[in-house]
Amino acid sequence: MKKNKLTLKGVADIIGVSTATISNAFNRPDQLSAKKREEILKKCEKIGYHGPNKAAQILRKGESGIVALILADNIEYMVSDPVASTFIKGVSRVLQKQNKHLLLFSGNEGSIRDVSDFVDGFICYGAPQNTALAQELKSAVKPVVTVDFDIEGLPSVNIDNEQAAFDIASKALGYDERVAILGLKLIDSPTTCRIYDSPLFGAESSIAQRRLQGYLKAIEQTGNHITNDWIWHIPESQSAYARQAASEVLNCEPRPTTILCMSDIIALELLQCAMAKGIEVPASLKITGFDGIDEAARTRPNLSTVCQSSIAKGELAATKLLENASENTVMSYDIISGETV
């Protein structure tokens, strides 16, 4: 049996008060005595009315109190990643203080149009898998802040990934090294593999490509050399994919003396595999990571890595959005010496 939808006027007629009184009970409680408000809310609950239509309120007021966070990849993968989950925590912390709500949106969805009318703005964390979303964001009426990539004309939050990669690689590399790189999302492939002559994926916007350029620059400036068959593509920063790459690179003959990893998760998996094989780190093998996750400091030996504050990055991105800021910000990072180089 279909229920008739209750309207504000209909509820007011049933209860015997004005529509303004009903509206005040739900939206402006300071306009009524506590006793009067409680009485009205109980009567509304009894007839099955739970307040004015939220969608209509959003359209009327022009704001919802909801911020959409567009994640570069699917939500399941992103929330399980320690770097992304820490970033989300930073965003949430700022929004909660301002009584705002967070909507997670996958970067492989078809369009932002389904949610654009119901959010107050967008934070885009990483270049979305569906590149069409970046074009939609560029022309969006609502405020937009990008993180770890840039859209012309929009405010952004980044670190200098290329310089950070150069710095950590330069710290690790000596003369006449055999160097390998365990990269992240370098080519368009769902499996762990060497890149060989495959075209690089997202060369203009990807942080992985910026890190790769930093590594290659450091390798060249320290008088070393690397070919594409010593560069691995790992499709996701997850242990299973990293373990396969670690096994392959450690079984190479001759084995690398330095391995540069594009995430701490990859580096930690490599470190475990090396220690299981009895390879001494750093005496026989030097390993670098990137991100500075908590586990990198807890492991033994401590991982040598780039530390970026993902929680501060999330807080800054949310603050920029709420303040409608227009400038780009490049955040600082730290090189953690660790014990693996």
TrEMBL record:
Ranges of residues in domain HTH lacI-type: 6-61
Keyword presence, Transcription: yes
SMART domains in the record: HTH_LACI
Superkingdom of the source species: Bacteria
GO molecular function, a single term: DNA binding
Keywords: DNA-binding, Transcription, Transcription regulation
InterPro entries: HTH_LacI, LacI/GalR-like_sensor, Lambda_DNA-bd_dom_sf, Peripla_BP_I
Pfam families for this protein: LacI, Peripla_BP_3
PANTHER family: LACI-RELATED TRANSCRIPTIONAL REPRESSOR, TRANSCRIPTIONAL REGULATORY PROTEIN
Protein name: LacI family DNA-binding transcriptional regulator
Lineage per the UniProt record: Bacteria, Pseudomonadati, Pseudomonadota, Gammaproteobacteria, Alteromonadales
